[in-house]
């Protein structure tokens, strides 16, 4: 992480909190001159800027992209690093860090560092909720299809936020109150489903009247205004959120999931359905994973858990995710006693393979197949058997990455995750027979019990959705699969259980400073203390 960049982001955060208060109090969106993700006066002079510029701002902040500010400084990757890499990707075992922020007492070693706790909150509310409110207020009456697409993007972003923190000031946002009260996570999820159902209905009605009609095509760098794609994406997001609540409300989970799959346009199935930010002459960016990895920061390498699973499975997709080191594909374990020079300078660990011009993927159709496979083992109507859907999920993942050998891979009934060796410090290694190693094989076994089938599905989904660490971390918390290596150093003071692993990020310090009464009430909605060891509402397996 670039310290100058992070200091600049902290300064912007102060301005952001002032702007957020103004949004809540007056409904006006203040100009934030120093934020490259903010609509500028020049942008406002273009056609349809009353909604288009705000939509672009939303797109930039679901996952923060790396762009250049007016003075040529890169901005965005530092936010992505804290929110998506040092949180989701690290907690999910995807990547390993080779830096020692705050003297190695940080999120990676379960000290829920105050400076990092605010970043996801700022991105969600300033980067997504504020521009969404502008779009919704301007478009809901005359152009409901525009409001519908913006709402789908908002739900994607805010589902990630609530799955990070828990309760949020969601449904009351922008209603004229200076400081908003929080909603329980259950109420937030219920709102997600209601909003998604309405958005899907509006867009499908728009589509049936003219299937060729586009929405925000000049500003939509995901689907270029293709309404059918947005409906499929919304249905897939609905399916994802339905599965998330299966252990707290199985009836509603089943209903929402079956509705999503049965919709006339259905869920994502093909490579053309991939939701990703496209590079364009009007929208250029560097992939933030490249910046924080080999491109600039050099702070991230392959994760040890990925090392174990992908090497153990001889997975052909490994070269799409990581680069060969001097000793094959080797990862770094999260939460270790680290000397930066020993790890960052070592040629033994694999760099990330993500290129600067790679598209930042929001969701791919392989995930939809694995969600349906899980629904099938639960007895839900998913338009296919669990085996068919599981195998198609793997095949689609291979296809998307240009990997060959899917049939041989799916026939493998012996390979299991490999032991892990840390070439710098053997104390971090995990040997054969360790209970920390996964044992699940690849080939589908119809005779297996429910939990074995579930572990097999979630493990392959975990591999297929890389590098979406937030989603992988959420699914690990929900199912306890795959077997992610625990930290070696736990600096939580007993608040986070090493075996269970981290459950959430505590509320931001800015909320305790500016919204103390409401955040205190929000803590009571958690059902536990405001720390990283308190499970979220849906984490009840």
From TrEMBL:
<feature type="signal peptide">
    <location>
        <begin position="1"/>
        <end position="21"/>
    </location>
</feature>
<dbReference type="InterPro" id="IPR024302">
    <property type="entry name" value="SusD-like"/>
</dbReference>
<keyword id="KW-0449">Lipoprotein</keyword>
<keyword id="KW-0732">Signal</keyword>
<dbReference type="Pfam" id="PF12741">
    <property type="entry name" value="SusD-like"/>
</dbReference>
<dbReference type="InterPro" id="IPR011990">
    <property type="entry name" value="TPR-like_helical_dom_sf"/>
</dbReference>
<protein>
    <submittedName>
        <fullName>SusD/RagB family nutrient-binding outer membrane lipoprotein</fullName>
    </submittedName>
</protein>
């Amino acid at each position: 992480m670039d310290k100058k960049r992070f200091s600049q982001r902290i300064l912007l955060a102060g301005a952001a909190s002032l702007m957020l208060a103004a949004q809540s109090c007056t409904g006006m969106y203040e100009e934030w001159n120093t934020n490259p993700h903010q609509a500028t006066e020049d942008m406002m002079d273009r056609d349809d800027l009353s909604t288009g510029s705000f939509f672009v701002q939303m797109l930039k902040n679901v996952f923060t992209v790396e762009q250049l500010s007016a003075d040529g400084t890169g901005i965005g990757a530092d936010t992505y690093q804290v929110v998506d890499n040092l949180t989701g990707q690290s907690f999910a075992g995807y990547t390993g860090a080779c830096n020692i922020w705050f003297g190695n007492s940080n999120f990676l070693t379960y000290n829920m560092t105050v400076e990092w706790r605010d970043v996801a909150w700022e991105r969600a509310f300033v980067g997504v909720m504020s521009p969404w409110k502008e779009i919704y207020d301007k478009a809901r009456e005359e152009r409901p299809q525009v409001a519908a697409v913006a709402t789908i993007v908002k739900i994607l972003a805010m589902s990630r936020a609530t799955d990070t923190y828990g309760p949020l000031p969601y449904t009351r946002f922008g209603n004229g109150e200076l400081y908003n009260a929080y909603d329980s996570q259950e109420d937030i999820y219920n709102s997600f489903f209601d909003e998604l159902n309405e958005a899907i209905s509006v867009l499908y009605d728009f589509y049936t009247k003219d299937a060729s009609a586009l929405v925000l095509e000049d500003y939509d760098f995901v689907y270029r205004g293709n309404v059918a794609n947005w409906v499929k994406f919304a249905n897939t997001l609905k399916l994802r959120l339905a599965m998330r609540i299966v252990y707290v409300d199985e009836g509603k989970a089943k209903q929402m999931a079956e509705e999503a799959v049965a919709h006339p346009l259905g869920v994502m199935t093909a490579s053309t359905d991939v939701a990703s930010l496209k590079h364009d002459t009007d929208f250029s960016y560097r992939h933030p994973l490249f910046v924080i990895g080999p491109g600039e920061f050099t702070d991230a390498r392959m994760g040890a858990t990925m090392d174990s699973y992908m090497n153990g499975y001889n997975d052909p997709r490994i070269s799409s995710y990581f680069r060969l080191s001097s000793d094959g594909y080797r990862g770094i374990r999260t939460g270790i006693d680290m000397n930066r020079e020993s790890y960052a300078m070592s040629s033994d660990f694999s760099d990330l393979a993500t290129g600067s011009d790679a598209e930042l993927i929001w969701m791919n159709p392989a995930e939809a197949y694995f969600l349906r496979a899980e629904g099938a083992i639960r007895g839900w109507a998913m338009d296919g058997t669990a085996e068919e859907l599981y195998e198609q999920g793997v095949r689609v993942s291979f296809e998307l990455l240009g990997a060959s050998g899917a049939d041989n891979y799916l026939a493998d009934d012996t390979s299991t995750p490999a032991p892990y060796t840390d070439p710098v410090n053997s104390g971090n290694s995990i040997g054969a027979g360790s209970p920390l190693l996964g044992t699940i094989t690849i080939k589908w076994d119809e005779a297996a019990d429910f939990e074995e089938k579930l572990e097999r599905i979630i493990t392959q989904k975990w591999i297929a959705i890389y590098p979406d660490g937030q989603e992988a971390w959420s699914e690990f918390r929900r199912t306890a699969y795959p077997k992610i290596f625990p930290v070696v150093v736990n600096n939580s003071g007993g608040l986070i259980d090493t075996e269970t692993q981290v459950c959430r990020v505590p509320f931001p310090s800015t909320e305790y400073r500016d919204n103390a009464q409401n955040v205190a009430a929000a803590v009571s909605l958690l059902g536990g203390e405001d720390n990283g060891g308190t499970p979220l509402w849906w984490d009840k397996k």
